[in-house]
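Q: My labmate handed me this sequence with no annotations at all. I'd like to see what the chain might look like in three dimensions before we decide whether it's worth expressing. Could you predict it?
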Amino acid sequence: MRNIDGRAIAKTIAAEVTAAAAKLTADGVTPTLAVVVPTDDEATAWYVRSIERTAAKVGVRCRTERLTDPTAESLTALLDTLSADDSVHGVICQTPLPDGLTLADVGSHIAVDKDVDGANPAGLGRLAAGLPTFAPATAAAVLEILRREETPLTGRHAVVIGRSTVVGKPAALLLLAENATVTVCHSRTEDLAAVCARADVLVAAVGRARMVTGDFVKPGAVVVDVGTNPTDDGGLVGDVDAESAADVASALTPVPGGVGPVTTMLLMRHTVQAAGG
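A: Here is what I predict for the chain of 277 residues:
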């Protein structure tokens, strides 16, 4: 089995993004990403620092907007302001959110042309209709990895475990756009392992540590593990039991070092594209 190196893929994308950002900057437009942080959650703070470091490396200006004791009104007002600011090209909002707000509520206050992480429900509608839009970066990372690995998708059976609007549904739509035959599974799916074991490409985005074992995997399948589940010792494991899946799959994304680095880099690419690059 081959471990798919997400960090290497992200490095290749970074070179492309850096060149595009430099050209825009030379033309007088500095690609700018606004990161709205309405929480003091430590895991969120770590992720925001990662975004800031990555942005600095590729030539994207990162404007971090931290809110202390935010309300629904103050958060949505800030998102409206950033969406109307011509100097800002991409806007993302971190979680957890203030009481009374959902992701859909927040996303609807981000302009679609600046919604570089696909949070606006209108973006999901555009994705379903095959219209230009930014897919959620994690879902886009799944497809980016498959493309970079030259995984055949046309006519192949892809199974996505998970139906969230952040990963499962948009990943399924992106796979459909690549002419895969797609099955979306969830907590009510009967005989889940058997359904998954028919997949040429298996995407695990269920949020349960090591749930996907070797009996879920068709021999020779490519497995993309989107899960990031914290362990008691401070580490991360995926939704796939890598040890048992490795005996069956032809390729697997590790956790960490698989989908995550590509996701962050695609936020940068989307921002540069929104800026005109």
